[in-house]
Amino acid sequence: MRLCCHIPLASFALDVDVSFDARVTAIFGPSGSGKTTLLDAVAGLRDIARGEIEIGGKTLFSSARKINLSPQRRNIGYVPQEGALFPNLSVRRNILFGAERSAHATSANGIGMEHVLEVLEIAHLLPRPVTKLSGGEAQRVALARAILSRPQLLLLDEPLAALDIGLKEKILPYLARVRDEFAIPMIYVTHNVTEVLTLADWVLVIRGGRLLAQGVPRETLTSGRAVREIPEEQLENVFTVNFIDADKAAGRSRVGLSSGVEIFVPYVAQVDRPTFQVRVGADDILVGTQRPEGISAGNILPGTVRAVDMIDDQALVRVDAGEDFCVRLTAGAVTRLALDVGCPVFLIIKTRSFRLL
Amino acid sequence: MIFSLDTWQITLFSISVGLASALLILPFGIALAWLFARKQWPLKSVVETIVLLPLVMPPVSTGLILLKIFGRRSPLGQWLYERGIEIVFNWKGVLIAMSVMSFPLLVRSVRTSFAEVNPRLEQIAATLGASPLRIFFVVTVPLAYKGIVAGALLAFSRALGEFGATILLAGNIPGKTQTLSLAIYNYVQLGKDSEAYTMLGITVGLAFLFVWCSEWLLRTREKT
Amino acid sequence: MFLFVRKSFSVAVLFIILLSAQVNAWADEILVSAAASLIDVLQEIGAGYQANPKHAVKFNFGPSSGLARQIEEGAPADIFFSADLAQIDALEKNNLIEPGTRKNLLSNQLVIIVPADSKIAIKSPKDLLKPDVKKIALAEPSSVPVGVYSRKYLADEGLWNQVKLKIVPVQDVRATLASVESGNVEAGFVYKTDAAISRKVKIAYEVPLDKGPKITYPVAIVKESKRKDTTRDFLSYLQSPAAKNAFKKYGFVVLD
Hints:
The complex is a heterotrimer. Chain A has helices at residues 35-43, 71-74, 91-95, 113-120, 135-147, 165-182, 193-199, 217-220, 224-227, 331-337, and strands at residues 2-8, 13-19, 24-28, 50-55, 58-62, 67-68, 76-79, 153-157, 186-190, 202-207, 210-215, 236-247, 252-257, 262-266, 276-281, 286-288, 299-311, 314-320, 324-330, 344-349, 355-356. By secondary structure, chain A is of the alpha+beta class. In chain A, strand 17 (299-311) and strand 18 (314-320) form a beta hairpin. Chain B is 79% helix and 0% strand. Chain B has ten helices and no strands. Chain B has helices at residues 5-38, 44-56, 59-70, 75-82, 91-116, 119-127, 132-161, 164-169, 180-190, 193-219. Helix content of chain C is 41%, strand content 20%. A six-stranded mixed β-sheet of chain C has the order 2-1-3-10-4-11. A five-stranded mixed β-sheet of chain C has the order 7-6-8-5-9, sandwiched between helices. In chain C, helix 2 links the parallel strand 1 (30-35) and strand 2 (57-62). In chain C, helix 2 packs antiparallel against helix 10 and helix 3 (64-72) packs parallel to helix 4.
């Protein structure tokens, strides 16, 4: 997909020119950086001064060739920040609102209503009036509505922003499921790193209407240029793991990273999916130049330092311990331990520092 | 108070023409209100001002303008007369006077209701493939209907109370163009106080009822 | 803010002073309530009277029935100049007329007028029944003199019940004239004196003085008048040769 647009806004101009081709592309940036404007432009809800928008070879907008498809004809599903369910229609009619269009859909990916309801677990909500839905339920209904209009592209504008942390963690897996089950490309706007690391295959970092960086999330978000955009608490590592076994008495389960390395995470009984995700904050990992003895941490992983980025008074240290780990230390720690590229180190991570997704 | 046959005839006449006038202006009022609320177009502020004029000008002024437009000596009046349509001193004149005077009230009320519908909802409906017409009827109107009905009720009450424009354009012909308001004026002029008070009671009662309902509808609106 | 309040207050005081000065000037001005058909002739007579700077007259024109009602409600008229006897009779019955001041001054003739460019031929009142004649303007036939006269005349001719279906009631005789001028009605009943001042109407039929109603214009001093001397002065002026000439010039019949 090709996204090129120049839109003058109040205090800056949104000026973006990118091409990418990924399952889920995240647009990451602080509030007010023009992310929603960009989505609106892609959906055809906003005028573009000049630019080109192309999806799957089809031109949706071209100022040069005077092409401007109406939102109706762009075949794009939009899940806005507030869900925007129609309060005068039932949940059922909301979900099926765009379904008539699917009769003419070019993408015959055979998405059935029951399938969608099952994946998002909202079948029981059908008879309920829209105004009686909780925040999380409303978001899932909005998602179902967008999916069932058989779009060629899904746009999501900070879908989890309005939810509190506990709810965010509950809904995130649904989004992952949507990504895996329905094969519709997604553009996902957010200012939350976890969401990017969990869902996206590609990320565009935007600030003040300009593209700062783009690439694979794990690397791009920890690169020097982008890391300043990330709020303190959000620098995290996200890994896809598979379940091995569980030990309830000990309070932990064993999972395997894709490289084969095994780690301990807090107890979870059994996972019915082949893989799932766990995360650990960059601030929660200790680095040692020797293997420690007699400490509580359940995970001691040997690895090699791949990169050290000094940023102000902090340091981002990339360690290859089978998987790529990003660790944040104070600049002083790096100096004290004389950490440098190629140093052999041990990563010490508490079992309970891992969070399950 | 005297409830004669005349009283019923005048009341019935006023209500039916008032109702007809409200129904007549409804589609135009809704369409114009939507254009005001959702679109920008050249000369929009000029049209907004013109629509608002009958609300602030003395009704007789509006009546005079209408008389000049529809009178037999004007091009339009001539054209209509040749086709057998008479407006001046005719119930059609009552209809037009009522419609013109109550139109701005309807447009204002409906415009506010449309403006209160979250435009995001309409945008999302568009991305889901709904045509502008479908969006209007399935999303916008159902969410704004309370304001529309309130506006129609207000317009209807205003139509019932219309005097200045009506008396100039349609005259005060008993049995043909005499409305409740014109009847009150007539009875007072003729010194028939009891009949006048009957009409007064009816007009106050009706006005109270409709305005109360209109306000109730507006109070119970939900925010989108 | 306070400066603004002070300024507007002084402007208001100034205005009130000026106003009361005017009111004092009006103190000796007499108010004449007169039938609408007398507008033009009385304004000319009034101008003649006020050539003498000591005299001041103000006119209040309208349908005699409406004017009588005003006087009943206490309007400060000094003289009432009506177009028929019924109104003065009613006021006299309610003791609102100064005894001994009542006098029948004028008479008039009823005519049927049509718009100047009308193609409809009306040679007699029966022609009013023609289908071409759709609307006929008439001052309120139950109270305004010219309306009452016309109705009586048509009733005597046996035509009222049919003609009344076409009647558009208007405020007074000048409103009748205006309706016919506008072309929005096909015919109307006015006095011959009214038809004479308008070029946009033509007389279709003059009601013969012997067949038509006996039109009488009485004048009287209102009992409540506070300026009886000045009023009597004007009343006698209305009967002076100068005034009589004016009345005749406009087509009124002067009664002696």
